[in-house]
Amino acid sequence: TKISQVWWQDCLPWSLLLLSLMCETSAFYVPGVAPINFHQNDPVEIKAVKLTSSRTQLPYEYYSLPFCQPSKITYKAENLGEVLRGDRIVNTPFQVLMNSEKKCEVLCSQSNKPVTLTVEQSRLVAERITEDYYVHLIADNLPVATRLELYSNRDSDDKKKEKDVQFEHGYRLGFTDVNKIYLHNHLSFILYYHREDMEEDQEHTYRVVRFEVIPQSIRLEDLKADEKSSCTLPEGANSSPQEIDPTKENQLYFTYSVHWEESDIKWASRWDTYLTMSDVQIHWFSIINSVVVVFFLSGILSMIIIRTLRKDIANYNKEDDIEDTMEESGWKLVHGDVFRPPQYPMILSSLLGSGIQLFCMILIVIFVAMLGMLSPSSRGALMTTACFLFMFMGVFGGFSAGRLYRTLKGHRWKKGAFCTATLYPGVVFGICFVLNCFIWGKHSSGAVPFPTMVALLCMWFGISLPLVYLGYYFGFRKQPYDNPVRTNQIPRQIPEQRWYMNRFVGILMAGILPFGAMFIELFFIFSAIWENQFYYLFGFLFLVFIILVVSCSQISIVMVYFQLCAEDYRWWWRNFLVSGGSAFYVLVYAIFYFVNKLDIVEFIPSLLYFGYTALMVLSFWLLTGTIGFYAAYMFVRKIYAAVKID
């Protein structure tokens, strides 16, 4: 049949193209910044980004704790994404020179005197250590990492155990042992450089390609410092860790050492260390499994629907027996009511307009990120791009909402445009503002500053709102969608529906397939958001997004077909709600993730988690609901155009 041929012709080339794209883009990397060449003994600046904890979800700036400060504190100018992430990049007193070793040096030591932490400072440091805070530093835009060496104990008889090296982002502020709290007050920096090939008469240049740290806790008595700010580290395991007693003043030294090593890693590949994964094969297997399952189920659904439709259309178009046609039942009977405008057409068209806006923004962001242009080295670029794209996609959201509103016999286009521009963004801004007030109360750097909030409001009302109005105006003026059948003046009575046609049952049924296609990827996205990991698997994500679009469309068409066969023509709102059914499963998964994967116990971190989760679920429902709605609308118009209506 024509429909099945079109389906396979469309899907097969696309799936093959996407798989080839993913294979090509896995090693493709477009750096976010130009490389910096260093000469021997050039200063390499160590900057601090923030303190983070997966237990509290509240980032703090570096100098919120009593670390040693330089003579002048300078904050880096940040983009929108960095501000929203809670990054506050600031200079530090670490003096690091290219390819120059330092055995041990004391920070902020005046006349060989140790640093004294007051009771209040000691209590704050102890509290941050018990909350599992990590410190994030950068050198030449490379984040610091702690090396973890894990031994795979596959064969107990094998003496030569395989060593699996992984990297942890940042370093732990300290640790607890038998109800005692210890601070990492000595940092051993290990920096790797790549020597660039130069001509004979030119001086060698170096590029930083890796930045590691080994944090140590060494008590005051075991560190020997002289008046030149140099120090001597204790040998072997003779030293005791530096305890922090939160009930009294504590004296300690902050020290560091610098070690340089040459590396074969080239500058363009320097982020590979941070992005290595131990379970790439599992990820590939799960993605391919999802692809096969979804396309198999989609193919079966398509064939069933196509065969059933062919049979229906053939029966409906028979004009042999008038009595038989009088006794027909099924979706043809509701042809006079199927395009009857629903309740609240303005709100429906506004939500669908916001869904189109989200769809365009997500598609472009994932595609550009897949090409490597929004790599983790471009700090904050992903979030900045997403914010600006959402604003500029308002013109497409307004256009689609305006045209649909006119199709649904709406007349107040100005009010409809305002509703489209403010309904979804207003909810997002309201929730974020309430959460931001709680973060402000905790003095966290994750709180969006007031000037940034004003800038976002200006973007909303200065860019997004006018563009939505512009798109809405042209969409409303355009010819409405051409419905193939006329709507009767008197609405038809709807027969009593079976239990499985209940709206909530429909949401549960429709959400399984799209969620099943993407839940593996959801784990990695949640880890990136809530556990301060880097997310870079945009090739996988793009494929998952395409699968999501296909599966949402398929399920939506099946659900609307069953509903019309049950002679229920009120499909507009129901289809929009049911198509977003996978958002319900995302919510359930978020609760599961919170209980099983995160160690959050306090009220405000829990509030932040569920507040941001509510925004994610709402956005995901809008996205999948819009995809399903437009697929169902096209399907309904096609099938009613294919039958002869007297």
UniProtKB/TrEMBL annotation:
Pfam families: EMP70. One of its GO terms (biological process) is protein localization to membrane. Keywords: Golgi apparatus, Membrane, Signal, Transmembrane, Transmembrane helix. InterPro entries: EMP70. GO terms for cellular component: Golgi apparatus; membrane. Residues 1-27 form the signal peptide. The chain crosses the membrane at residues 284-306, 350-374, 380-405, 417-441, 453-476, 504-530, 536-564, 576-595, 607-636. It is a multi-pass membrane protein. It is found in: Golgi apparatus; Membrane. Belongs to the nonaspanin (TM9SF) (TC 9.A.2) family. This is Transmembrane 9 superfamily member.
